[in-house]
Design brief:
Alpha-Beta Plaits; 725 residues; elongated; 23 helices
């Protein structure tokens, strides 16, 4: 008698202890939500991250120069200059209103100021600068009064453009925009997922179970992440990643399990026997897939970045919770409901599902692929390689202003400020450390830095200097050419780091100078990502190979999975390069190309895509191995395994593609790139790779698919239990 695998034992226990499993799951979710909500989430401090030189400099700034939230009011006219009486009157009015507010301090007006940087070179724009009282953290909740004051000034001076932007106002507006976007994504994703699942099952109750489990699993995980955050702080964006990954794997795992149970019922097995078969087969696939996905997600710990580490924690937790729910509460629910899970049948769809679990289109395609495996391999492999070619020209950069939703008023204001005052809003900051930065030699070097920087033509006035109370640190703010993250800004940064600083401050013994700011942070983060990519790739590939080798006891299967997943990821990178580094899709997706992909995306996409694509791969290969272990020849086992999984893989892929595609409609460029990359990769993976290239290559390999060297014969043999009643 075959020994039951872990998933089969879990399913059997849950079916026999339905009440304990269901109540236990509810208690787990409620406890996680209540406890996590009570203690709150500890977030990574804004200035605690950063990579390389800019990160080190930013932390020094944070320690020596506690920065308030700075705001600016732009007063602008196409016809008038600052010399016009009405223009000057507006500046006096704006400054007076701001000084009267209890929430503001240090209001700086261009009238009577020695700071030439408050008036644009053409005289048609001016800035009134001020700080919000209190710490920068939470300043977005204290900016409303100044925004109202600015709006009132605009109403009183309609001949001028008067608008406000800065740290707090931008954070307030962008947070609301992103929150609205994610709410839109959540609102759209649930009905779309339900419709696809109704088509997959042919019944409303069955369609609701995966969604219910996924939602409760995500809710519990978000609060578990809050608990973990008190050990290691997390990035606020983790909640959206948990939602994205949690809904995807939660729905997929339940879908795999339930479709196998329904398939066995259609074959004539009793309800208990069908559930045992599903637990032993699809349950095991869920367990293996979950472990593989978690191993892939763990690769983000090696990215050298606190944000990626927190994303690794969140995704590992949500996948673990999804696996736990699929192996425990799901079989308990199915055992309790029995065939009542198919209540709310959609007649036409339900009849089709009862007649056949194998979509005719996929069956016909797979038969042709298996008859002509060489041609199929050349066509599918050639298509994937062609898609991957543009990936070799993939450029990465932080998008800066260009990546924000262009329709937002705050973004338009920031763009107008940037156009009128190039480099002023986000200057490079040279952090100077010395025993005494007030010493004559250091002061002369700082003055020399200013002269040499301005002489390059790539840096612009005003250059300002601030010194901390102890006299140990000075910060020199140097506006750079360009938008902050474009080629002109990067060239200016290179000159500042490579020439200006070494020839001035670098000549003074005991002085250390490091550059931070938007441009330096973007450059250093991109460099860090490129440096860590090989390490992350090696870890993920090695872990996936080992897990697949142990699971399927075949070097060939493990290597084939790695190659196919790399092709999928390469093709997705190529699609990103085609869509976002060129201009032809700008109108379709409502964005303006920056000529680059956001810096964090390639590493993040690789980990997520490699993990998610393993869902399908493990599920399909398990069915093939199951058929082969039951005595079917390899060619027949391939046909049986892929045909029998085509429907559920298609349904699961449709859910993921639909949900990910919603992100392509969001405002921020980063979210568009994330949505397109994920949707394209899953679509390619579930069609070209799994339906064409996988069966073709396995057909060509024949019995070599199951090759395991004798020296690895000690590997444990985990039975691929079939659906025998």
């Amino acid at each position: 008698m075959r020994q039951e695998n872990l998933a089969a034992r879990a399913g059997r226990w849950s079916a026999h202890h339905r009440k304990a499993a269901i109540v236990g799951w509810i208690a787990f979710v409620v406890a996680a939500v209540l406890i996590g909500g009570a203690i709150g989430t500890k977030q990574i401090p804004q200035d605690a991250g950063g990579s390389g030189e800019s990160g080190r400099a930013q932390r020094i700034l944070h320690d020596h120069f506690p920065q308030p939230a700075s705001e600016q009011v732009l007063v602008q006219s196409a016809a008038l200059t600052v010399k016009a009486p009405s223009f000057r009157s507006a500046l006096v009015d704006v400054a007076g209103r701001l000084r009267a507010l209890p929430s503001t301090e240090r209001v700086r007006s261009p009238l009577g100021s020695r700071d030439p940087g408050l008036i644009s070179s053409d005289g048609h724009s001016a800035l009134v600068q001020f700080d919000l009282k209190g710490k920068a953290d939470g300043a977005d909740k204290r900016v409303a009064a100044s925004l109202a004051s600015t709006a009132a000034a605009q109403r009183d001076h309609p001949e001028l453009r008067i608008e406000q932007a800065g740290d707090a106002s931008a954070n307030k507006a962008l947070s609301k925009s992103f929150s609205d976007d994610f709410a839109k994504a959540r609102t759209l994703s649930l009905p779309i997922t339900l419709v696809i699942l109704v088509i997959a099952f042919g019944a409303i109750v069955a369609a609701g179970i995966p969604v219910l489990l996924a939602i409760t699993g995500v809710a519990a995980t978000l609060r578990l992440v809050a608990l973990v955050s008190h050990v290691s702080a997390i990035d606020p964006a983790v909640s959206e990643v948990v939602l994205l990954v949690g809904m995807a794997v939660g729905v997929d795992y339940s879908l795999f399990y339930m479709r196998r149970e329904r398939e066995e019922r259609v074959r004539g097995l009793s309800e208990p026997a069908a559930l045992r078969a599903a637990a032993a087969t699809s349950g095991r696939s869920v367990l293996v897939s979950g472990l593989t996905v978690m191993a892939a997600m763990a690769g983000m710990y090696l990215a050298g970045d606190k944000t990626f580490a927190s994303m690794a924690t969140g995704t590992i937790l949500v996948v673990a919770v999804a696996v736990l729910g699929s192996l425990t509460v799901l079989p308990a629910l199915l055992s309790k409901l029995g065939d009542r899970a198919m209540k709310g049948r959609v007649p036409f769809v339900a009849r089709r599902r009862e007649r056949s679990a194998e979509p005719k289109l996929w069956g016909a395609l797979i038969e042709r692929v298996l008859r002509r495996p060489v041609a199929a391999t050349l066509l599918a492999g050639g298509a994937l390689l062609a898609l991957a070619v543009p990936a070799f020209g993939l450029h990465t950069a932080t998008p800066g202003l260009a990546g924000l939703p262009s329709g937002l008023p705050i973004v338009k204001t920031l763009n107008r400020m940037e156009a009128a005052f190039p480099g002023g809003a986000q200057p490079a900051q040279v952090v100077v450390q010395a025993r005494d930065v007030r010493a004559p030699a250091v002061r002369q070097a700082i003055a020399g830095l200013e002269r040499r920087a301005l002489a390059t033509g790539q840096m612009h006035p005003p250059v300002s200097v601030a010194i901390d109370r102890a006299g140990a640190v000075a910060v020199v703010s140097v506006p750079l050419s360009g938008t902050g993250t474009d080629a002109a800004s990067y060239r200016a940064l290179a000159v500042l780091r490579g020439d200006v600083i070494p020839s001035t401050l670098g000549q003074v013994p005991g002085v250390k100078a490091q550059v931070t700011g938007m441009t330096a942070s973007s450059k250093d983060f991109s460099a860090s990502m490129k440096a860590h990519l090989p390490l992350v790739f090696a870890f993920v590939l090695t872990m996936a190979f080992v897990l697949l080798l142990v699971t399927f006891r075949s070097i060939t299967i493990a290597l084939l999975a790695i190659v196919l997943n790399l092709l999928s990821v390469g093709a997705a990178y190529g699609v990103l390069a085609l869509v976002f580094q060129r201009h032809w899709a700008e109108g379709l997706l409502a964005f303006k190309s920056t000529g680059a992909i956001t810096s964090w995306l390639p590493l993040f996409l690789f980990v997520i895509l490699f993990g998610l694509s393993m869902d399908y791969h493990v599920f399909i290969l398990s069915r093939i191995r199951e058929a082969h272990d039951q005595g079917a020849p390899t060619a027949e086992a391939i046909a049986q395994g892929i045909k029998s999984t085509a429907g559920v893989v298609t349904s699961a892929a449709m859910v993921m593609v639909a949900v990910f595609a919603i992100f392509a409609s969001l405002g921020a460029l980063e979210f568009k790139q994330l949505g397109v990359g994920l949707a394209a990769a899953i679509l390619i993976d579930a069609t070209i790779v799994r339906a064409v290239l996988l069966p073709a290559l396995m057909r060509l390999l024949g019995e070599a698919n199951w090759y395991l060297p004798e020296r690895l014969g000690w590997l444990p043999h985990v039975a691929h239990q079939g659906a025998r009643a």
